[in-house]
Specification:
This protein is α/β, with parallel strands linked by helices. It folds into three domains: 75 residues, Ubiquitin-like (UB roll); 120 residues, 2-Layer Sandwich (Alpha-Beta Plaits); 375 residues, Rossmann fold. A five-stranded mixed beta sheet has the order 2-1-5-3-4, sandwiched between helices. Strand 7 and strand 8 form a beta hairpin. The chain is globular.
Length: 594
C-alpha cells in the first residue's frame, strides 16, 4: 500500500496516497476542478492549463493534473484569481476555435462548450484569430476538423500510447503547433486503423465519424428499396445513458421499436450472426486443434484489429480466422439467404448496420466483401448517428413500447450478446468449441478468467480428449501488440505458439468502448456496459451458440454445415499486407480458408 500524506483540500483535511495527483484527489472527494486536456483514462499532458489550483507556498498556480500531492499541502480549487485565470485561458482557446455549436456533432456533448458556459464566457465579445483550414475528409470513417481542435493532445496520446498506431502527431512549433498526420497526408494516407478512439476522447467536435445518416434516410424513404437493419451487441447496452436511464441498462426491445418507427422494413439483429460466427470460427479452431497445428487461431471480428494486423503483423495473417465479422456475415446473408427466403430481388435490398465502431465503415467498403454479388453492407451508422436519428425522428425512447425483432435472422443466445465485451468472443467460442471437440455440453459456462479490464488475460481450459486449451485475450491495440509480439517470438524460436486460441479487440473494453459509442465515456462506464451484457446473458433462456434455433435452420435450409463450401464462399474472407507509412494495400497476405 502506498504511503499516505495529509493534505487540505479547500480547507478540509484528508489523508490520501502520495502517488495521487491533485486532480485525482479532488475527483475522489467530489470537488470538480475544471479541465480540458485531462482524461482519467490517459496519462496527463498538462497542455491546456485550465485545471490550475493554488497551492500554499507557491507564488504561481499549479496544474492539478500533473502535480502530485505532498505532506502538508494546502490546496485551493476556487478563488477569484483562479476563475479569472481559467476564463482567460478558455477565451484564448475560443478565439482560435470555430464556434458553430448548433450545427456541431458534439453540441451539448462538447467539454469546451460546457466549460465556457460554466465560466460565463461570451464568444460574441472575443476577437477571432482563426485562420480556417480545410477539413481532412480523406478517410471513409473519420473526419478531422482542425478548426475545432484545441490542441489538448488527447487524440495523439490515445493513438500513440494506448493504441500504438502512430497515425496522429503534433506538427510545427509554438503558436503554430497543431495535430496532424505524418507529412500532412490525411487520415487515409496514414497508418490509421479507423478504430475511432480519437473521436471518443476528443473533447470537442474536431474528430468525428463520417456520417451516413442522409444516405440511410434516403434509402428508408425510397419505396423501391427494402431496408434491413442490424444492431451490434454493444448497441443495446449504450443507448440508455443518452435518455437518463441507468448506465448499463439493456434496451434491446426499445431499440427494435425505435428502428421500426424510423421506417426500417426489417429489424433484425447482429447477435444472430455473432452466434453464426462462433459456429464458423469454432469449427475452424477445432479443425486446427485436431490437426495438431502449432499456430494459434486469432479472432477476426474487430475491423480495427484486422487493419492493425495487416499493417504491423502481416506475417501472422495466416493465424487469423478467415471467418468474416458478424456484421459482414449478416450483410451477405441478407442479400442471399434472406432475399431467397422472402423472394425479394437482392438489388432492391439495402443493408444498414448500427455499430459501436467507426472502423466498421471502413470494413463495409473493403472491396473483397461483395460475395453476395453486391456490396454486402451498404451503410454503417455509429451509435452516435443512430441516437441523432432517434432525436430527429422525435422518438421518446425512454417511454416507447417494447417490440420484438422480425424473425429469420434475429434470435440470439447469451453467447452472442457477450461479443460486445472484451473476452466475450472467447467465452462464447469455448462454450461451443468444447461441445464440438468432446460431443458433450460444457456445464460451467461462465468463463470468468477471460472477463474484466486487465489488458491481457490468459487462461487454461481443460478439454477431455484434447488436453489443456491455452487461450489469451487482449483489448486495446497496445495490449494486442504485447500479445502478438509474444506469439511472433514463440513461433520464431521453436515454431510453437504459447496459445491455441486468441481474442483481440481493437478498442479498450471491447466493443462497449468502440469509437462510435456515445461521447464522454471512460473505462469505468465501459465496465458498466459490459456488466449489462453479462446480465443479459444470464437472463436469456439459451446461452450457447450451437443451440440457436435460427442458426440451426440456416444451416439446414441454406448453408449445409459450418465450413461447408457455401459457408466458406459466403462467410469467410482473406487479408492483405499494408504499408506501415500509408496504410495502403501492398499485396494479398492470405487466401480464403479451404
Amino acid at each position: 500500500m502506498a504511503k499516505t500524506v495529509n493534505v487540505w483540500l479547500d480547507g478540509n483535511h484528508i489523508e490520501v496516497p502520495e502517488t495521487m495527483n491533485i486532480i485525482e484527489v479532488a475527483d475522489k472527494y467530489g470537488v470538480h476542478i475544471p479541465r480540458l486536456c485531462y482524461h482519467p483514462d490517459l496519462p496527463p499532458t498538462a497542455n491546456c492549463g485550465v485545471c490550475v489550483v493554488e497551492v500554499s507556498g507557491n507564488p504561481l498556480p499549479k496544474r492539478a493534473c500533473c502535480t502530485p500531492v505532498a505532506e502538508g499541502m494546502k490546496i485551493t480549487t476556487n478563488s477569484k484569481k483562479l476563475r479569472a485565470y481559467r476564463k482567460t485561458l478558455v477565451e484564448m482557446i475560443l478565439s482560435n476555435h470555430e464556434v458553430v455549436c448548433p450545427t456541431c456533432s458534439a453540441n451539448n456533448k462538447c467539454e469546451l462548450q460546457t466549460l465556457a458556459n460554466n465560466l460565463g464566457v461570451d464568444p460574441d465579445h472575443l476577437p477571432t484569430i482563426l485562420h480556417k483550414a480545410v477539413k481532412d475528409e480523406t478517410s471513409v470513417s473519420i473526419i478531422r476538423d482542425i478548426n475545432k481542435c484545441i490542441a489538448c493532445g488527447r487524440c495523439v496520446t490515445v493513438c500513440n500510447e494506448v493504441q500504438t498506431v502512430y497515425a496522429l502527431t503534433f506538427a510545427d512549433r509554438g503558436f503554430d503547433s497543431h495535430v496532424d498526420t505524418a507529412f500532412a497526408g490525411g487520415m487515409a494516407n496514414s497508418p490509421c486503423v479507423n478504430c475511432g478512439q480519437c473521436t471518443v476522447y476528443c473533447p470537442t467536435g474536431a474528430l468525428r465519424e463520417k456520417s451516413e445518416i442522409d444516405a440511410v434516410w434516403e434509402a428508408i424513404l425510397d419505396p423501391d428499396k427494402h431496408v434491413i437493419v442490424q444492431e451490434a451487441p454493444a448497441i443495446r447496452v449504450s443507448l440508455a445513458e443518452e435518455f437518463g436511464m441507468e448506465l448499463g441498462t439493456v434496451t434491446v426491445k426499445k431499440m427494435y421499436a425505435a428502428l421500426r418507427k424510423l421506417g426500417f422494413d426489417a429489424v433484425m439483429d447482429t447477435n444472430f450472426t455473432a452466434d453464426l460466427t462462433i459456429m464458423e470460427e469454432g469449427t475452424e479452431v477445432v479443425e486446427k486443434l485436431k490437426a495438431g497445428s502449432k499456430r494459434p487461431v486469432i479472432t477476426s471480428c474487430s475491423p480495427g484489429w484486422i487493419k492493425f494486423m495487416e499493417t504491423y503483423y502481416p506475417d501472422l495473417a495466416d493465424c487469423v480466422s478467415t471467418a468474416k465479422s458478424p456484421m459482414s456475415m449478416f450483410g451477405v446473408l441478407a442479400k442471399t439467404y434472406y432475399a431467397e427466403e422472402q423472394k425479394i430481388d437482392p438489388a432492391k435490398i439495402v443493408t444498414v448496420a448500427i455499430m459501436p465502431c467507426t472502423a466498421k465503415k471502413f470494413e463495409a467498403r473493403r472491396p473483397e466483401l461483395r460475395d453476395s454479388g453486391y456490396q454486402d453492407t451498404d451503410y454503417v451508422l455509429t451509435t452516435r448517428e443512430f441516437l441523432r436519428m432517434v432525436h430527429e425522428g422525435g422518438i421518446d425512447f425512454k417511454h416507447i413500447k417494447e417490440e420484438d425483432a422480425d424473425e429469420n435472422m434475429s434470435f440470439y443466445t447469451g453467447a452472442g450478446t457477450i461479443f460486445g465485451a472484451t473476452g466475450g468472443v472467447m467465452e462464447a467460442a469455448i462454450r461451443s468449441a468444447y461441445t464440438l471437440v468432446t460431443g458433450e455440453e460444457l456445464e460451467a459456462i461462465d468463463i470468468t478468467a477471460v472477463r474484466g479490464l486487465v489488458g491481457v488475460k490468459k487462461a487454461t481450459i481443460p478439454v477431455p480428449g484434447f488436453g489443456d486449451l491455452n487461450v489469451a485475450v487482449a483489448h486495446g491495440l497496445g495490449n494486442a501488440r504485447i500479445l502478438m509480439d509474444e506469439i511472433r517470438e514463440g513461433l520464431a524460436k521453436n515454431g510453437v505458439s504459447p496459445y491455441h486460441f486468441v481474442e483481440i479487440m481493437a478498442c479498450p473494453g471491447g466493443c462497449v468502448g468502440g469509437g462510435g459509442q456515445p461521447y464522454g465515456n471512460d473505462m469505468a462506464m465501459r465496465a458498466r456496459r459490459g456488466e449489462g451484457l453479462y446480465q443479459e446473458d444470464r437472463d436469456l433462456p439459451v446461452r450457447k451458440s450451437h443451440h440457436n434455433p435460427e442458426v440451426k435452420r440456416i444451416y439446414e435450409r441454406f448453408l449445409g454445415a459450418p465450413n461447408s463450401p457455401l459457408a466458406l464462399k459466403l462467410l469467410h474472407t482473406y487479408y492483405f499486407k499494408r504499408s506501415v507509412n500509408s496504410g495502403q494495400v501492398t499485396e494479398q497476405a492470405t487466401h480464403k480458408h479451404h
